[in-house]
Amino acid sequence: PYKGELPSTTDLLGGQLDSSFASIGTALPFLKAGRLRPLALVSTARSKVLPDVPTFGELGVPDVFEKRIRSDLAQWKKLLPEVGITPGD
User: Fold this and answer.
1) Using CA atoms, how far apart are residues 69 and 43, in angstroms rounded to an integer?
2) Rounded to the nearest 5°, which phi and psi values hold at 50?
3) Nearest-angstrom CA–CA distance, 20 and 22
4) For residue 31, what are the contacts with CB-CB under 8 A and spacing of at least 6?
5) Coil vs helix vs strand at 15
6) Residue 84: its pLDDT value, please?
7) Averaged over 16-35, what is the pLDDT?
8) Where are the domains of the chain?
9) What is the DSSP letter of 82?
10) Residue by residue, what is the 3-state secondary structure of 19-70?
């Protein structure tokens, strides 16, 4: 596990990882420089910034978005238990 997407992006660029999830803001400079190649977006719609990159749903893996959201919510629930978020399984 990584403590943020910058360390995982560093390892991805250095060849220690084969793939990773990253926000467009973190990945965009490396995408433009040709150092990273996007596979798909964890989104329900394509991005205006990367219109040629399909969503996982378009590639036949529709539940990636929902699983990522549940994972993110679980992390927030650990940080902010008073909010009472229930991410589900």
Assistant:
1) 10
2) -130, 65
3) 6
4) 37, 38, 50
5) coil
6) 53
7) 92
8) 1-37, 39-83
9) G
10) CCCCCHHHHHHHHHCCCCCCCCECCCCCCCCCCCCCECCCCCCCCHHHHHHH
What's this model's pTM, rounded to 2 decimal places?
Answer: 0.68
| Helix H or strand E encompassing 76 | helix 64-79
Tens-digit pLDDT profile for residues 6-20: 899 999 999 999 988
Tokens of 30: 């490396």
CA 35/CA 15 separation, integer angstroms: 11
Distance set, CA 65 to CA 2, 8, 29, 34 (Å): 20, 20, 23, 25
50 vs 76, residue with greater confidence: 50
pLDDT, residue 61, reads: 81
How far apart, in whole angstroms, are the C-alpha atoms of residue 62 and residue 43? 9
